[in-house]
Amino acid sequence: MKPYEILKKNLITANPVRLVALGYLSHMLLGSVLLSLPIAQKTPVHFLDNLFVSVSAVSTTGLSTVSISDSYNFFGQLIILSLIQLGGIGYMTLGSFLILISRKKLDELQRGISSVVLSMPKNFKLEKFIISVIIFTLATELAGAALLLGVFTYSGTPEPLWNAVFHSISAFCTAGFSLFNNSFESFQGNHWLNFIITFLSFAGAIGFIVYVDLWRLITHKEKNITFTSKIILDTTFTLFALGAFLLFLTNIFNTGKDTSLLISIFQSMSAITTVGFNTFTISALSLPSIVVLTILMIIGASPSGTGGGLKTTTFSAILATIASTIKNRKNITWYNVIIPIGRIQTAYASFGFYFFMLAMGLLFLTMTESFSITELGFEAASALGTVGLSLGITSNLTTLGKLIIITLMYIGRVGVLTFGTALFLKPQLLFDDKKDDLVL
Fold first, then answer.
1. What percentage of the chain's residues is helix, strand, coil (to nearest 5)?
2. What is the widest separation between alpha-carbon atoms in the chain?
3. CB of 274 closer than 8 Å to CB of 383
4. At what angle do helices 91-103 and 74-89 cross, to 10 degrees?
5. Which pLDDT does position 8 carry in this prediction?
6. CA distance linking residue 430 with residue 158, whole number of Å
7. How far is CA 184 from CA 19, 50, 108, 193, 276, in A?
8. CA gap 58, 80 in Å, rounded
9. Among residues 271, 274, 329, 316, which one has the least CA distance to residue 59?
């Protein structure tokens, strides 16, 4: 048997989850090599820092040990933006889209990998879902770039077109990478920029399931949106509003009432969508505000979106279990819908493994770094949740500290449960439970 035939046979019989994990890893390594090329840099950047930026871009985290605008030229920034786009919509989603254009059908291996990358309800057709994701992504990013172009042009920002394109894609992919060294602190009181970035970030973080659902509802193909979409919308915006209220209530910004409310809204959005932009120096926040942001970062965005974190649906499943237990109900319900025990087990497995990885990351950071437990805990939560907010310690991490954060960002992008199943689960067990409607 020829080498390529052996490789093909191994790929066909391989666990799709492991292929997804290896796929993201290969893109991260390739990105670090490209960023290490002299033609991509303004000033020399150490390979570990290039690897850090590459992993952060593919994982759509936004943490960086170097300044993006000061360290990389246009070509380097274009590489980073490409990595963000690949990470945001999923490299397999884009690849499947190109395959569908050419031959209209995915083979068994491609469908298996895509099913891992794109969690969706049972009544969604994979091929149509992938095409919808790509079209919606490009349309939203284009609209966002057009709106940001007006904001940057009016404010006199250098290279307004490139800044508009870069930040539109970075926002929609909830990456949080910025060409401004202080993120959007200079636009703290700019209502238009705050609104546009908030819209783009929510558009990416809410997840493509909701948009397909709404489209089917508008076109009268369905009478109601799915159970998953109801949970996503209610949980996301409830947490967003609660987070903004709590941030505002702590009164930590020492600015005018209107401005501090705007900052509270933006930073709550930034944490729950895991976009990671900031209009206020995070290290200047009070401890209660840091706790609020940490909780929001851990819960994170929604399945089949561009954000990270534990996921709103997993969080809701756990809340449903607690509520049903307190009320002594025989079945676990949410909105009067019974949640299958298999999904509850998955939710708690995700919850347990997520906090285990977070605890291990924090433990190792305390062994290698000299920062406070608050700073390290926030950094670890931000990395695993692929958020990108920081208390200002990222660039001062040791070599081992950077490697720990890199590992957390990678696990966060692959997904903690996907990472675990890639290590331990047999491939035939992965897709057994497809009977219910709740996507975690």
1. 70, 0, 30
2. 73
3. no
4. 80
5. 46
6. 49
7. 37, 23, 44, 9, 11
8. 8
9. 274
Give the mean pLDDT per block of 10 residues along the chain (440 residues).
Answer: 48 60 88 97 97 97 97 98 88 50 52 51 63 86 98 96 98 96 95 97 89 83 84 94 92 54 94 96 90 96 86 92 90 87 87 94 97 97 96 97 97 81 51 48
Distance of CA 399 to the CA centre of its chain: 25
Question: Which residues, at least 6 apart from 335, have a Cβ–Cβ distance to it below 8 Å?
Answer: 227, 230, 231
Q: Give the DSSP H/E element, type plus range, for residue 147.
A: helix 126-154
Q: Return d(Cα 364, Cα 339) in angstroms, integer.
A: 37
DSSP code of residue 388: -
> What is 413-438 written as a DSSP string?
HH-HHHHHHHHH--GGGTT---SSS-
Q: At which residue do the structure tokens 């939203």 appear?
A: 140
Q: What is the dihedral of CA 140, 143, 149, 154, to 10 degrees?
A: -120
| pLDDT of res. 120 | 53
Helices (H), 273-398: 287-299, 312-326, 341-368, 373-384
The size of the chain, in residues, is 440
Dihedral (Cα; 357, 358, 359, 363), 10-degree rounding: 100
- Distance (Å, rounded) from C-alpha 31 to C-alpha 79? 7
pTM, rounded to two decimals: 0.88
Tokens 């939560």 locate to 381
Q: Which two tokens stand for residue 227?
A: 């159970």
Distance CA(96)–CA(241), nearest Å, equals 36
Q: Which position has the token pair 């391989």?
A: 14
Residues 36, 102: Cα–Cα separation, whole Å: 34
Instruction: Report d(CA 438, CA 332) in Å as an integer.
Output: 13
